[in-house]
Amino acid sequence: SDNKAMFTKWANRWKDEEPYRFTKAIHNYAATNLIPRHLGPEYVIHGAKLYSPWDPARTEITLVISEWFFDRSLNLIKNLDNKDHPFSKVIIMIPPSISNSHDYSKYTSVPVTLQFRDTPDFMDLCSA
């Protein structure tokens, strides 16, 4: 339907006033992914997908790293504790021909395990 006449009438009626009312009770988060700490004081939320933060007491997450040499993952491990992450342990998948003698406990508080790869590297996540 053609609503031009109706909108023209409204525009003429409210042209000298501010017809909108602003409130902090409603917020439009259309097509937004959120976790609860991102929300403000609003009571009505439009369009947001709300995710619960990860609860490490209920479920652990293991970070699996595909390594092709002996020390490419070392920088990631050294910086792991400086980041907000959900990982409770780390598995580094390495080729059987590589010797790796790093003591990862010097670099992170997250337990790190080395595992020799016995399948192609694209299967690391499944083999860990």
Which runs of at least 5 residues are low in confidence (pLDDT < 50)? Answer: none
Measured as a percent range, the helix fraction is 10-25%
The total count of strands amounts to 5
Helix count, DSSP H or I runs of 4 or more residues: 3
* H-E order: HEEEHEEH
Structural class: alpha/beta
Q: Separation of termini?
A: 60 Å
**Residues in β-strands, percent:** 25-35%
Question: What general outline do the C-alpha atoms trace?
Answer: elongated
The average pLDDT score comes to 81
Largest sheet: spatial strand order: 3-4-5
- How is the main sheet built? 3 strands, parallel
Rg, rounded, reads 26 Å
Structural account:
With 128 residues, the chain is of the alpha/beta class. It is built from 3 helices and 5 strands; from the N terminus they run αβββαββα. The strands form 2 sheets. The chain has a 3-stranded parallel sheet with strand order 3-4-5, with no helix packed on it. Strands 1-2 form a two-stranded parallel sheet. The longest helix is centred in the N-terminal third of the chain and has 11 residues. It is elongated and about 80 Å long. The termini are far apart.
Offer a quick outline of the entry:
The protein is α/β, with parallel strands linked by helices. Helices cover 16% and strands 27% of the residues. Strand 3 (61-66), helix 2 and strand 4 form a beta-alpha-beta unit.
